[in-house]
Design a protein that fits this description.
By secondary structure, the chain is an alpha/beta fold. The chain has 8 helices and 10 strands. Helix content is 35%, strand content 20%.
Length: 297
């Protein structure tokens, strides 16, 4: 499927000339490594599969749960790396576009190895991963916990409660919210060409629509929107935990896509020796997607 996608893109470009060049860059902001699969999965899949669309994904926090850089008891990977591996493999599977599942909707594909390169920007080192038409930026900020109560959190950085915030692997230190925003802005602008339409996909911040949001989710959304400024033509705001009380609304195909890519996270955690998130609570979100869209003139 990956080979077919590349052939299709080459055919369109050579057959249609300039009109077939990439037309849209779609940014996705995921506060934790499994958020984009659960809350934006089928839309991200469609964008990644579109040969005229460039997709850029920001993984903002490491989702480390303050468990450090070493494997937990009985585990063979640090917790954050187990989540990271699921995050990257879900993107690889979305890029390949070939769904292979068992009778539970779990992927039957093995987890792939991968490697990062480092991008230097604003005096920071940012780990990146890329495939044709797909870029990933790993900011590795500490998991701030649901109310932003951890020692370091996006909320505390935004509100000037802390003097700076390090990446968990010490590859970068952000002196304040503006330093973080500037870094993300520079990365986003590096992905935008004058001919592109620009789309932004972020968590919903309106608490009348998305009640009781996780602090990291809310501030990840704010970061994405502030960093992009007025460059977005279209912004989609995705409901998250509030989905649990909404009616299932996805087609069987889209439910299958969400379960398939989320199973990368489950598979990675299980193989690393951590409790599996393949449970009714998480799978409930794979039946639903609700967002509102704002289109700017």
């Amino acid at each position: 499927m990956r080979f077919f996608k590349l052939l299709l893109l080459l055919f369109i470009i050579t057959s249609c000339g300039k009109k077939a060049q990439i037309e849209t860059v779609s940014f996705y902001f995921s506060a934790h490594p499994d958020d984009w699969q659960l809350f934006m999965g089928e839309q991200a899949w469609a964008d990644i599969q579109d040969p005229l669309n460039r997709v850029v994904v920001f993984s903002v926090t490491a989702g480390d749960a303050a468990m450090g850089l070493n494997p937990g008891d009985g585990a063979n990977l640090p917790y954050y790396q187990a989540r990271e591996r699921g995050f990257i493999n879900a993107l690889i599977w979305a890029f390949d576009g070939q769904i292979a599942i068992d009778d539970q909707g779990r992927s039957t594909l093995p987890l792939s190895e991968y490697s990062f390169r480092e991008t230097q920007v604003n005096g920071k080192k940012v780990k990146t991963y890329s495939l044709p038409g797909l870029s990933v930026y790993m900011l590795y900020l500490p998991d701030g916990f649901p109310q932003g109560q951890h020692t370091w959190s996006l909320e505390k950085l935004k509100n000037n409660v802390i003097d700076g915030m390090p990446a968990i692997d010490s590859t970068a230190v952000y002196t304040d919210w503006e330093d973080l925003r500037k870094t993300v802005t520079m990365l986003m602008k590096s992905e935008i060409y004058p001919s592109y339409d620009v789309e932004l996909n972020i968590p919903e911040r309106d608490t009348t629509i998305n009640a009781n949001p996780h602090s990291d989710h809310w501030h990840t959304s704010l970061l994405g929107e502030e960093a992009l400024g007025d460059l977005a033509k279209r912004i989609r705001y995705y409901q998250e935990y509030s989905l649990a009380d909404r009616a299932p609304n996805l087609s069987p195909q889209d439910r299958e896509i969400k379960r398939f890519i989320f199973s990368a996270n489950a598979k990675s955690k299980e193989e690393a020796g951590y409790p599996s998130p393949w449970d009714d609570y998480h799978l409930n979100y794979t039946q639903r997607s609700y967002w509102r869209e704002v289109v700017k003139e």
